[in-house]
Amino acid sequence: MQRPTISATLAVALAVALAGCGSKATDAITQAAKSGDVTSKSGERHVACTIMPKEEINALTGGSYTTAEPDDDGHSSDSSCHYFSDTDPAGMSVSIDWVSPTDYSSEAEHLALQKASMGGSKLAGKLTNGMAGAGIAGAPNGPVAGVGDEATLNLMLLTARKGDFTITVQIIPTNMMALMTDSTVAIGLVEKEKTVARKVLEKL
């Protein structure tokens, strides 16, 4: 039976590490201001576990998560929630990151930060695409249509943006061998991630 390659394992770690690289990039190029993608300023906090309670996550994914564990210090402009159960401790996660009015002093900087928020995920996709054995059948790396203003999928990690908000959704497979050998497993998980992402963005 085929086993996941070392390069695939390294690629997963690399993609996850790079996915958040550009979330608050201070050196974003103001050229992005030409896009015309503008949202209103807001200092409101957004708590992932409140926006997406476990009951709604279960309804959307068919899961049976019993715990929603928040990771939110109440001060920074990001929040995440880990959903899991005794039988599925890896579970899934939803993270929300947003551009705060304190992050910029002009509309050009504002727009540049919005665009830069996806930079790490796009870079991760380019790097993993160039690594032998990094692909997962049924889960292509690259742009994803119909999820927010822009979205990308890198080794089962879905990142999407809507205005000032960047979110990530990741479901950790309970059977990694099935993921690597049966393309229908990845296809099903990706569709669930897209469904959750659309619902999160709808609420923001």
Q: Taking Cα atoms only, what radius of gyration do you get, to the nearest Å?
A: 17 Å
Question: What share of residues is helical?
Answer: 25-40%
Class by SSE composition: alpha+beta
Mean pLDDT: 76
- Strand residue percentage: 15-25%
Total helical segments: 7
Query: How many strands?
Result: 7
| CA-based shape | globular
Reported for the largest beta sheet, the result is: 7 strands, antiparallel
Q: Which sequence of SSEs, written as H and E, runs from N to C?
A: HHHEEEHHEEEEHH
Poorly predicted segments: 1-41, 123-128
Distance between the termini: 44 Å
Cross-sheet strand order for the largest sheet:
1-2-3-7-6-5-4
Describe the protein's architecture and organization.
The chain has helices at residues 6-19, 48-51, 54-61, 107-116, 119-129, 176-181, 183-203; strands spanning 67-71, 78-84, 92-98, 142-143, 150-154, 157-162, 165-171. The protein has 7 helices and 7 strands; from the N terminus they run αααβββααββββαα. Mean pLDDT is 76; it is low at 1-41 and 123-128. Helix 1 (6-19) packs antiparallel against helix 5. With 204 residues, the chain is an alpha+beta fold. It is globular. The protein has a 7-stranded antiparallel β-sheet, sandwiched between helices. A hairpin with a 6-residue loop joins strand 1 and strand 2.
